[in-house]
Every structure is written in C-alpha cells, then in structure tokens.
Predict the structure.
Amino acid sequence: MFIGATLARYLSIRFVRTIMLVFGTVFALVYTLDFVELLRRAGDAEGAGPAVMAQLSLYRTPAIAEQVFPFAVLFGAMATLLQLSRKLELVVARAAGISAWQFLQPGIAVALGLGIVSVAVYNPVSAGLKQQATKLEGRIFARRAKGLGPDIWVPQKSVDGSAIIRAEGAVEATSTITNVAAFVFDTSGKFLERIEAPEGVLRDGYWEFRDAHVLTTVEEPQIYGTYLLATNLVPNQLRQTFAPPESVPFWKLDDTIRRTESAGFDATRYRLQYAVLTARPLLFVAMVFLAASVSLRFFRFGGVARLVLGGVVAGFVLYVATEIMRDLGNAGIVGPAVAAWLPGIVGSLLGTLALLYQEDG
C-alpha cells in the first residue's frame, strides 16, 4: 500500500535535502584536504601556483567523493529518520495507521533515483574531470603511473611477425610505456631479437624505442638512439587500455571493454567497474534499509546513541565487504557480477531482516 502524494513528497524532500547536505559537506572537506596536500606537493614546481592547484583539486575531488556517496546516503537517511522521530512526526504517522514500510517508500525511491543519477550523470562528469586532472597533474609533476599489476604485457602482430612487449609502467593519458623489454618473432614464430629500452612510444603503425639495446642470437648487442618496431596497435587503443577504470565514464565502459578485449588484453577491471556502477542503486537502497533498522527507535525509549553507533559500524562492515568483493573480482576469483551485486543484496536482506524483527516481531 502506498502513502499519499503529499506525505511522500514531504518525506522525499527531507531525504534528498539531508543526503545532499551530507554529501556536500564531505565534498567540501575532501576538496580542502586535497588542495592543502597539492600545495604541499607543489613546492617549486613550474606553473604550480595556488590557482592551478585549486583547479587541479577541483578536477580530482568529484572522483574521490564518489567513493563515499553510499555513506552520504546512509548518514543522510539516518539523520532524516532521527529528525522525524525526534519531532514525533513518525509517531503521528504510525498513529494514522502508516507502517514503517510505507514511510520508507520515499527514502527507497530517493535512494534509487540518486543511484541512477550518480551512475548516468555524476560518474561521467567525475570521470571526465579525473582525466583532465591526470593530464594537468602529469604536466605539472611529470608523474608516471605504475603498471596495472607487477608488469604490463602487450601482445601484438604486424606485417613482419609478432612480438610480446613487457613494461613496468605507463604514463597516464599517453601512449608511452617505461622500462620496456620486447621479444620479437618472425611470421613463422622464430625468435629474432630482444629490445630493451627505458621508454617506448606508440606511434601510428610502429613503436619508437629510445636508447634501445637490441640483442640477437647471431651478432653482438647493438645500441640505437631510436629503434622502430612495426605494430598493429594504435595510440588511442593503448591509452584506453591503460586507463584506470575510475577514469572511464559509464557510457564508454562497454566500448572500452570491447576495445580492450580486441587488443588481446584482460578487461576484467572494466567489466567489474561496469557491474559495480550498475549495482550502485541497489547499494544505496541497502544503505536506506540499514539506516532504518537503527533509526526508528523512539527517543523516549532511550538507547538511540547505541543504535546510531551500530548503524555506523554496519555501514563500515558493508564497505569493507564491498572492497573485499571488489578485490576478489579484480583477481578473477569471483565473477564481476557476483562481486558487484552481492554486497548490495546482502546489505538489503540484512537491513530488511532487522527491520522486520523490530516492526513485526
């Protein structure tokens, strides 16, 4: 049974306002701390003035704040329900025959709506700003990104044969890899040479290795200032493959997965990110259920502080479980769908169970 439109609108506004207030507070705090940290890092770096650092921090903050969005929903929902209980509005609602399940409907709807908006709108914006931050940070600090694992492995083919390229790292938002070793084979699969270079840049149709050492089985090692190797890869494909999943907008993840797999790379990270974003609305709903399970006790009964602490602990445990499942998904131990959806499903079921116990005995 649904509640009236007027009451639903009133409760929805209360939920939205409190959740966004919590998220805005966290956003401002993250921005301030990040800005101070960037000023400390800037030092005497060329072009790293306060205005540039403020811009860089503004680019970085949305992606960082996105990680705490579920907690904003949890604390915002808890604060909303506690305020309604303190002002006896929930008492009046119960006296009018409205159950907890009915006055939670606006909160659940708000959680679903915010989850969809955060995935469809906020995530693409934060991912785009993160890409801009990476470029700006790389230009200022000449920062190089570490590899996606112990090493980066790039298989490739060309008209001359095939090669397997290993690199220890990649420069973010570019087609440059560092500390390279390439094993080159002819069209029949016979080993030809090994190329070692501190840096390699992917151009259109070829790799450009700088200060390369070339070793073969038939002659002495040779040193070249620039050494070229043909390839079927293109720079844009390599940049997308090495991009962190968090910097790929939701609407481009499907295309990134396809490109990554067509290049012969493992797309598990991107599949997991896609599944995590898809499951986010359910995770937000789970946070509302957890908030309701610890925030509906009448103030005159006492023990509210203990219940609120229990809600914080439950939210932290759910966050830890989410991160553990994400690590298991990245490692390939569980599938991306299981790693992404299980925390939201378990959190919703546990919150519902606790609420059933409190409301219906």
Summary: The CA atoms of residues 12 and 110 lie 6 Å apart. Residues 146-243 form one domain.
